[in-house]
């Protein structure tokens, strides 16, 4: 019975940590990347207007994600590392959703 409680607790704590990390990363990257000088926006000239911002967003997001994966996997006990990988794999499609939300 104790093992099931530990696993449920690990899932709940992982979900809370996942949501907190995603919210912090999203707001951090949006406040860092989205505001630009209106003159630069008016100049345009690129195939995709926000191409540099999108690439910086993806690069920064992946860097933060891999760093948090390394820290979390070294801190949790061995039996809960699969939960860390689950949240890591879940954050990859979440990045696409965050890109659409941030740049639309």
Automatic annotation (TrEMBL):
Please indicate if the UniProt record lists Membrane as a keyword. Answer: yes
Is Membrane there in the keyword field? yes
Give the UniProt keywords, A-Z. Membrane, Transmembrane, Transmembrane helix
User: Which spans are transmembrane here?
Assistant: 12-34, 54-72, 84-103
Protein name in the entry:
Uncharacterized protein
């Amino acid at each position: 019975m104790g093992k099931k409680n530990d696993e449920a607790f690990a899932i709940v704590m992982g979900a809370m940590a996942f949501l907190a990390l995603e919210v912090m990363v999203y707001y951090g990257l949006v406040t860092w990347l989205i505001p630009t000088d209106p003159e630069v926006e008016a100049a345009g000239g690129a195939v995709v207007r926000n191409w540099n911002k999108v690439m910086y967003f993806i690069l920064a997001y992946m860097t933060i994600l891999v760093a948090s994966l390394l820290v979390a996997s070294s801190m949790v006990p061995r039996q809960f590392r699969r939960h860390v990988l689950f949240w890591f794999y879940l954050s990859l499609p979440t990045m696409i959703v965050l890109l659409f939300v941030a740049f639309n």
